[in-house]
């Protein structure tokens, strides 16, 4: 199994910092996590709800930094049938992890979420995305990861989804819940390419990895705390996908 050097280094540094914080802390021996802070965002209003009784399958693609944590969060959401890590924004020839990691392909690391809109609405998915999945005020970065491949974006080919997402971003901007402007892009019309098999279910399969413990597991805890009615303990894993 391979991992980009930047994530290996970031995970190692994170583990070292966490260990030093424990030693310098209260002496109680509890681990200290510098987890990204979750935010309580307002409930989307108006058309952003998009509940669809009788419709049991819809898709939307979220890009919010490293796809390990984004996938991991949505796999714990009731009503989400699958969350697949992959790439969006560039060409098929460049939809490979080593190329995407270079930052020059136009691709973003992203997660295609297939969900049942009669059980979980787009509004609820958007709330999770903007509150616990990532920091939407960070441009081309999340946590230790830097580059356009880590940009914040929502890719929706459905016009109603795009309109609802734009309306919610406007609502967030006006609410003042974030200290900085939301920089999330809303796009459509781009093909999603599943990532290599070793990236699928990464959080669930490697919970002890330093990067996962430091940057991603706190997101799962925030999801459980902020959205208990939609949280499921056992993640919905995906089967291996075909690599082009």
Automatic annotation (TrEMBL):
It is an enzyme of class 1 (oxidoreductase). Signal peptide: none annotated. Residues 59-211 form the Peptide methionine sulphoxide reductase MsrA domain. Pfam families: PMSR. It comes from the Bacteria. Its EC number is 1.8.4.11. The keyword Transferase does not apply. One of its GO terms (molecular function) is L-methionine:thioredoxin-disulfide S-oxidoreductase activity. InterPro entries: Met_Sox_Rdtase_MsrA_dom (IPR002569), Met_Sox_Rdtase_MsrA_sf (IPR036509). The active site is at 66. Keywords: Oxidoreductase. It catalyses: [thioredoxin]-disulfide + L-methionine + H2O = L-methionine (S)-S-oxide + [thioredoxin]-dithiol; L-methionyl-[protein] + [thioredoxin]-disulfide + H2O = L-methionyl-(S)-S-oxide-[protein] + [thioredoxin]-dithiol. PANTHER family: PEPTIDE METHIONINE SULFOXIDE REDUCTASE, PEPTIDE METHIONINE SULFOXIDE REDUCTASE MSRA 2. Belongs to the MsrA Met sulfoxide reductase family. Has an important function as a repair enzyme for proteins that have been inactivated by oxidation. Catalyzes the reversible oxidation-reduction of methionine sulfoxide in proteins to methionine. This is Peptide methionine sulfoxide reductase MsrA. It comes from Stenotrophomonas acidaminiphila. The lineage of its organism: Bacteria, Pseudomonadati, Pseudomonadota, Gammaproteobacteria, Lysobacterales. The gene is msrA.
């Amino acid at each position: 199994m391979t991992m980009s050097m930047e994530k290996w280094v970031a995970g190692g540094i994170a583990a070292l910092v966490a260990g030093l914080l424990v030693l310098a802390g209260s002496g109680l021996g509890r681990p200290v996590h510098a987890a990204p802070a979750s935010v309580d965002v307002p409930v989307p209003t108006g058309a952003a709800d998009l509940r669809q009784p009788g419709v049991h399958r819809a898709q939307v693609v979220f890009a919010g930094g490293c796809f390990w944590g984004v996938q991991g969060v949505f796999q714990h959401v009731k009503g989400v049938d699958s969350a697949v890590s992959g790439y969006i924004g560039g060409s098929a020839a460049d939809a490979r992890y080593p190329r995407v990691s270079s930052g020059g392909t136009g691709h973003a690391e992203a997660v295609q979420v297939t969900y049942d809109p009669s059980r979980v609405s787009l509004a609820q998915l958007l709330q999770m995305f903007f509150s616990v999945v990532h920091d939407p005020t960070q441009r081309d970065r999340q946590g230790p990861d830097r580059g356009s491949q880590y940009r914040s974006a929502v890719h929706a080919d459905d016009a109603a989804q795009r309109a609802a997402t734009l309306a919610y971003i406007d609502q967030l901007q006006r609410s003042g819940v974030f200290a900085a402007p939301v920089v999330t892009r809303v796009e459509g019309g781009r093909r999603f390419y599943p990532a290599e098999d070793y990236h699928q279910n990464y959080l669930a399969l490697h919970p002890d990895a330093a990067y996962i413990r430091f940057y991603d597991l706190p997101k799962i805890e925030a999801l459980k705390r902020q959205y208990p009615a939609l949280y499921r303990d056992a993640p919905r894993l995906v089967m291996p996908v075909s690599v082009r």
